[in-house]
Each structure stands twice: as structure tokens, then as C-alpha cells.
Write a structure and sequence with these properties.
The complex is a heterodimer of chains A (182) and B (176). Chain A contains 7 helices and no strands. The longest helix of chain A is centred in the C-terminal third of the chain and has 31 residues. Chain A is elongated. Chain B has one domain: Glutaredoxin (3-Layer(aba) Sandwich), CATH 3.40.30. In chain B, a hairpin with a 7-residue loop joins strand 1 and strand 2. The chains are: A mainly alpha (182), B alpha/beta (176).
């Protein structure tokens, strides 16, 4: 144990010089990221914010996170409400926590969100006429590709079968050509 | 001939789809509240906190609900237009002061002008959630029956006023 500590101290001493250079680098990086953050402050009031502390009730929190993982944050659209630190998502999470405590079902909470923000808020869009293309488009593309491939292969096979065998004369010509480069 | 036409046609279809995709604004999420009754609220007024205003108080007239905040930079862009509309007496504008501090909000109105018939206060954004607010400023056109007829996401512009909001207001005012 002592030995181990001494080793670490020796290591520390050795690295004193290097670590001060590293500290300087770290300060620079910190400054750079701060400046970068300044540029990233959006103009339209969609500012991000620190995540609030995990709520007191872990059961409510777990259900809330499960629900919000499938809901889109409308401010930062590629993040789920569970992941987002935007003010908007904070508010929605707070609202959903309150609804869970009020014994609302998952279905009721999802409906609450869709009534206000539309289907766009769902990462899993419902199947209805406006989303048919979205749901079945890839399948249609796949089937038409497959159909094209089958037709193409069948046509080619027919062509191969129909091919007339070479005559004796032609065979000689082929051999002559093949032997030319030998 | 067919050999060249097929890929060309496929390519052109793709170009059309991608072009349409480029011209869409992902920020403009169509609101499901259009043509639905405006969510009911009863909120304290900004200037006279002891008084409240209910959305039901506005039944029978066409009105605009403008969601704003002193921290919202884009609100400053649209503000002169709102002041202009209010001064011309075309349509009453009600302000929903969204997640703001009372003092800074009043100070902000003093500085930039106050177009609002009444400003009401939504300090925790709860009414904002009911209205599906996600990017301030937003403006709702609400008719005499209390139905939301239009939602402008982001700042009101001269173009959106002239082409959409004002003609709609005029049409709605003409209805009984």
C-alpha cells in the first residue's frame, strides 16, 4: 500500500511539468468552448437549459422517461423530449410528471400531446391515409425492384435458351481469334 | 431508348422530391388546433395582477393572441408591426406574456410600445402548452365563436400580415 502511494507520488512529481502545460491547454479549450457556446445561443428564444435534478419519485421518473423517449422535442427536432435540455422539453417533462401523479394512463398522456402538437410529436407516426406512403413506400419500392429483377432474369434466360449453337465454321473462327494472342 | 429513359425518369422524380423537401421548413409544424376551439384560460393581467382575463371574455369578437416575452429576440422584429396594427384599430391584440418576469416585461413594453389591449401572464408556460406553443413568438387568429383559425409560428412579417392574417381577420369580422 505504502509502496503504491509512493509510486503515485513519484509519478505525480515527474509529471508536474507536463501537467501544467496540460492545464494551460485545458483552460484554452474551456475558453474556446465558451466562445463557441456564445455563437450557439439561438436568436429565437429556443435557448437550451440545464437539466433539472431527477425528480423525487423514481417510479414516476421512470415512466416519464419511457414516455418522453418516443416524443419529439419540437424545438430541437432530432432529440427526444427525454434527451433534450431545451426549456420546452423541461416544461413538457414537468407536465407529464404531473399527469402521471394524477393517475393518467400512457394513452391519455400521448393523446394530450398529440392534441396540442400534432402527430409530428410522435416518433412513431400512426398509420392513416396521409402516412400510407411513409409506411408502405419502402415496401412498394422493394417489391417493384424485386419484380423488375425477376422479369429481367427471366427474359435473359429465354435469350440464352434461344441462342443458336455455333456452326463448325464459326467455331474455327473463334478458335483462331483466341489463339491469335498466344 | 427505354434503357436510358428509365433511369432518367427515376432521377427526375427523385429531384422533384428532394427539391420539395428542401423548400419545406421543418420549424413550421402544422398545428392540430386549427379550426378547434381555443383552449380556455383564465390568467392574471400583466399591468393589473389583481385582475384576471378569461378567453371566454373575448367571445363575440375576432382577436389575435400574440405569445411574447421580453427575453425573445425575434419578438422585437415583429413588434413594430403589431404596434402598427393596434394603432390602426384593425383588430384587438391580446398578449400572452410567456415565461417572463413581470418587471422586465412591463419595462420592455414601455421601451418598444404596447400594442396589447390586455397582456396576460403565463409565468410557468402551462397555458402555452395548451396552445401548443414551442417557439416564441407565435400568433393565433381567433374568431367570434372562439375558434382558432390560423397560427403564425415565428415573427409576424409584412408579408404574412398582408397575405394571410389581415385578409382572414377581415373575412372573420364580416361573419356573424
Amino acid at each position: 500500500m505504502m509502496n503504491h502511494l509512493n509510486n503515485r507520488q513519484a509519478f505525480k512529481l515527474q509529471n508536474e511539468g507536463r501537467s501544467s502545460a496540460r492545464r494551460e491547454l485545458r483552460v484554452k479549450l474551456l475558453l474556446a468552448s465558451f466562445l463557441l457556446a456564445l455563437f450557439l445561443v439561438p436568436l429565437t428564444g429556443w435557448a437550451g437549459n440545464e437539466a433539472p435534478l431527477v425528480a423525487e419519485d423514481p417510479v414516476v421518473e421512470k415512466r416519464m422517461i419511457e414516455l418522453t423517449q418516443n416524443l419529439r422535442c419540437l424545438v430541437c427536432q432530432n432529440e427526444s423530449i427525454a434527451d433534450s435540455h431545451a426549456d420546452f422539453s423541461n416544461d413538457i417533462r414537468r407536465e407529464i410528471r404531473a399527469q402521471i401523479r394524477a393517475n393518467k394512463t400512457d394513452q391519455e398522456i400521448i393523446e394530450f400531446m398529440v392534441e396540442r402538437y400534432g402527430d409530428f410529436v410522435l416518433y412513431d407516426p400512426p398509420i392513416k391515409p396521409t402516412t400510407f406512403l411513409l409506411w408502405f413506400g419502402p415496401l412498394i419500392l422493394f417489391i417493384s425492384g424485386l419484380a423488375y429483377l425477376i422479369i429481367y432474369l427471366r427474359r435473359r434466360r429465354l435469350q440464352v435458351e434461344e441462342a443458336v449453337p455455333l456452326s463448325e465454321n464459326e467455331k474455327k473462327q473463334v478458335e483462331a481469334l483466341l489463339n491469335e494472342n498466344k | 431508348m427505354m434503357r436510358f429513359m428509365l433511369p432518367l425518369v427515376a432521377f427526375l422524380i427523385m429531384v422533384v422530391f428532394l427539391f420539395v423537401g428542401l423548400s419545406l421548413n421543418p420549424r413550421q409544424v402544422p398545428s392540430p388546433l386549427i379550426d378547434k376551439p381555443a383552449p380556455v384560460f383564465e390568467l392574471r393581467q400583466l399591468h393589473e395582477p389583481e385582475k384576471k382575463l378569461s378567453s371566454q371574455d373575448n367571445l363575440g369578437k375576432v382577436w389575435l393572441l400574440n405569445v411574447w416575452a421580453s427575453w425573445c429576440v425575434a419578438c422585437r422584429d415583429e413588434h413594430p408591426l403589431l404596434v402598427h396594427v393596434a394603432n390602426a384599430g384593425i383588430v384587438p391584440i391580446y398578449g400572452l406574456n410567456y415565461k417572463d418576469e413581470r418587471d422586465t416585461a412591463i419595462q420592455w413594453l414601455r421601451q418598444f410600445g404596447d400594442p396589447y389591449t390586455v397582456s396576460i401572464v403565463d409565468p410557468d408556460g402551462r397555458v402555452g402548452i395548451d396552445y401548443g406553443v414551442y417557439g416564441v413568438p407565435e400568433t393565433y387568429v381567433i374568431d367570434k365563436q372562439g375558434i382558432i383559425r390560423h397560427k403564425q409560428i415565428g415573427p409576424v412579417t409584412v408579408k404574412s400580415l398582408q397575405e394571410t392574417i389581415l385578409p382572414l381577420v377581415k373575412e372573420l369580422q364580416g361573419q356573424s
